[in-house]
Please model this.
Amino acid sequence: MSTLVIVESPAKAKTVGKYLGAGYDVLASFGHVRDLPSKKGSIDVDKNFEMLWQETENARKSLPPILRAAKKAQKIYLATDPDREGEAISWHVREILKQHLGKKFDELDVARITFHEITKKAITDALEKKRGKLNENLVDAYRTRRALDYLVGFSVSPLLWRKLPGARSAGRVQSVALRMICERQAEIEKFQAKEFWSIEVQAKSENGFLKAALVKFDGKKLGKMEIDSKQRAEEIKASLLKASYLVKSIKPSQAQRHPAPPFITSTLQQEASNKLGFSPARTMRIAQKLYEGLSVRGSPTALITYMRTDSFTIAAQALEQARAQIGKMFEKSYLPDKPRFYKNKSRSAQEAHEAIRPINFATTPESLTPFLDSDQQRLYQLIWRRALASQMTSAVIDKLAIEIEGANGEGANGGIASGDSNIGLRALSSRILFDGFLKLYRDTSADEQHEDEAGSLLPSLQEGEKIEVKEIDATRHETQPPPHFSEARLIRELEQAGIGRPSTYAAIINVLKVRGYVLLEKRKMIPQDAGRMATSFLCHNFKKYVDYDFTASLEEQLDKIACGDGEWQLALQNFWDEFKTTLEQGAALSPEQVRAQLEEDLAYYYFPKLEDGSPSVRSCPTCEQGHLEIHPGRHGAFIGCSSYPDCRYTRGLADGLAQEEGISGITFPHTLGICPETDLQINLRRGPYGVYIQRGEVLDKKEQKKKPKPKRVALPKHFDPKTITLQSACQLLALPREIGEHPQTGKEVKAGIGRFGPFLLHDGAYTGLGEQDDVMSIGINRAVVVIAEGGSDGRVLGSHPQDAKPVVVKNGRFGFYIKHDGINASLPRVLDPEEISLEEALEVLAKKIAKVAKVKATAGVKKPLARKTKKMAAKNVVKKAATKKKVAKKAVAKKAVAKSVVKKVATKKVITKKAVAKKAATKKVVTKKAVVKKAATKKAVARKSK
Model:
């Protein structure tokens, strides 16, 4: 009898199995084996929040081997991850084993083991310290979180769909994160820049030149926004040029810059985004593989500790390893006398017991180069350097501050009289005296706070030394709006607000992108129309439940339950009692009330002020009596007339295209001029798919027969609608243009713009052009390369391991897809086309190939069966016809030809097999005779009529 060990993933099972050896069966559950069904009634609020659990899709494949092994096992170890989710997976597995094994389960030795790194020692220690029971407090916290998410999602979402047609769904934490993004975007859009000036003096001393900033004038300290106009700046400059200056004080100092702590989940996601450009989801996928184990020198090897953690602790043995590695790589001055210990400021830090670190510090990133792909190598290097640097000595920064005073009048001996100084200048210098941990690692967030460390050195000066001003520079500045949220910034903001937990950040962001609430553009998170409207609706009608403090307080409640300080069902009851009332109030909202709420929040965006600052014109262009307003619609919101249904004017929102495409202030159609070749007017117009150029006017149906339809062409993305000229419009309308002959085929290559964007046409085949190629200027050499590569809009992920042919992610008319050797596989929505790895792309291709093969195999079986069925049916019809003795008179009277055939069949009593086989031939003869007879009858009738 063997021992069964159950983990989450096959990779982890493989690595753990290597260390345990014979006598152990290590099987994977493939994540959660049960979940709440996505339908109403999965939680019964009237029965103390009883939950209806259902086996997941993955469980149908993973559970049978586990159950078979459990029946033969003597011991079962639940070895899932050491956090709430891991405890919950073990709990679900235990409940299923109870259900299927019955009395045998009570005879088994079932224990829970946890380890934070997958090494032989860690696993051996875990087996020795096994827990007989699960941590029910963690399970209760998981059930509470899952119930809260379900109750909010399955209660608010249907209400949102009814009151705001076209909306997606709502989530307890996702909606709060969306609100954060929308509010930041509103701040940016409403922001009005203010002008201010800074003044810098370039001066000369006996030993060299220096630059100093003006910090005091007229005896008053200057704030950042104090000099608010060019006129004021020029007045100050003139005054400064007349003054005399001397060195008031020289203050040298030293400061230490300490290393950042090792990574926790949130900081890893932030730094991977800043330094590597990885999304949180991509970071966690790679980190999961590094934790579970990869093939190193032919053996599955785990490389980092558990990556879902909010603890800065490093195990004592790992600290010794780190210090030994520092001593091996650097001089003694880089190793502090004692190990460094870090404390987490977050009160809720309790999920796991170690920070993210390498399992073995002696395993350098360089030593793993042959075994890891590029992404894995870069992320491991980031983790390894950060963890090692956290145990190195601090950097020492040498700083110097020089205060210079000035006055418009000179005192005795050419100096400034005491008390007469009314001007203050300050020169700062800093340099790294000892680099310490900076020799190995620089933290992005810390670098932002220490930008002055690379400042220029100041000349040697003496207090009282006279300074001669050579030049004064006044520089204009504008206040800047708050930055857009990147994924890293959003995670930092959520963490600081206490919203969500380490394991949820990547999922939160991914849901917002998949639902279409947020678009990631150049690493900026831009809320879309659906996201703006959902946020407006929720902030008006569920204000408490999208409040930052309330959401954070719920997280604290969950933490208390996890520590055993709260009762989970009571927490749910308290939440539900008040939430139910809010739901009832939301259900009573009228369409007019919802429309008014949207107007209040979003009118500034959909009806922006004109360039001169005057209000947007909102009178209806059709009826001229009603005014334009925001309407929720079945297929999404739109702009419509207030006089609906009398006036049916509508236009789309187009996600703020008026601002994002630079066409605010343009009235459509916008006339560009008369085409010199056709004498037709050329207009710039706006349609549901964006801005386009049109030559000529749309005619009615009668005139269209005489004259051709007006030609149209979409305006390429890089064209500015405000600056497009008649000449450039004529060039676009002349497309497609001939580029030249293809050197291999000798056939013409053309470039044009179609419904799905710019393209190349060669030998009847279309190839898409990417943003880096201009349809108006692309030459034959570049065109040949683009055609050979299958389009320049693709991103090559790498070579396929089987045939070395490129694997490319491309954007097509139906969305993104993976292309390889003639196979196209649609990219699942959960995968980001900008961040998908070669390994993930190969999995998508493999599934596509398997699906195609299955369809072909099924089709091959079905065709013969179909033919056989048809033959059987034909035999049955003949048999049925042969056994009939009488035919109804109505059916006989239908056709003359059919009458003779039916009569013949009715008179037959027995039909031999031979006769059946000859029936087809007999039918032809009968039909031929009937046709001849019919023709003869027709001739006779014709003669009679003559």
